[in-house]
Amino acid sequence: MDRRAFLAAVGTGTALPLSGCLDGGLSDGDFDIGMSQNAYLPEEYEVPTGETVVWGNNGSRGHTVTAYDGLIPEGAAYFASGGYDDLETAREEWYASGGGNIAPGEIYENTFELPGRYPYLCIPHESKGMIGTILVSD
Ligand SMILES: [Cu+2]
After folding, report:
1. CATH number of 81's domain
2. How confident is residue 24, by pLDDT bands cut at 50, 70 and 90?
3. Total domain count, the chain
4. Rounded to the nearest whole angstrom, what is the distance from the C-alpha of residue 131 to the centroid of ligand 1?
5. For ligand 1, a single-atom ion, which residues have Cβ within 5 Å?
């Protein structure tokens, strides 16, 4: 998806206008946040406290969902695909063995029990701007 299409998709604030060809057999009802080449779609996603958010890899390459551990609300549970306890470990495991990879067609989910702002990243594509935020409301 190019930058303009991405912005158009974010602007809708609802389900993405996914085009016909989906890798891995996921359809847009299977997840809340899609993962394309270098982006989470939508980039920012708001849910009420206690809600489970589902990410789906509807692209053609592997991604991670990895929280920035210093930036999530105080007392909130850390989350990362692969189940790691902090960002440093998640990065080490990714570069060592591809740990935490969400392959095309796979989903990852996390339940948010505390309100606040949860920035997260994709380890292999952070440098290309693959960063997202979950906003958990009271
Ligand atoms: Cu990625």
Report:
1. 2.60.40.420
2. low
3. 1
4. 9
5. 63, 122, 125, 130
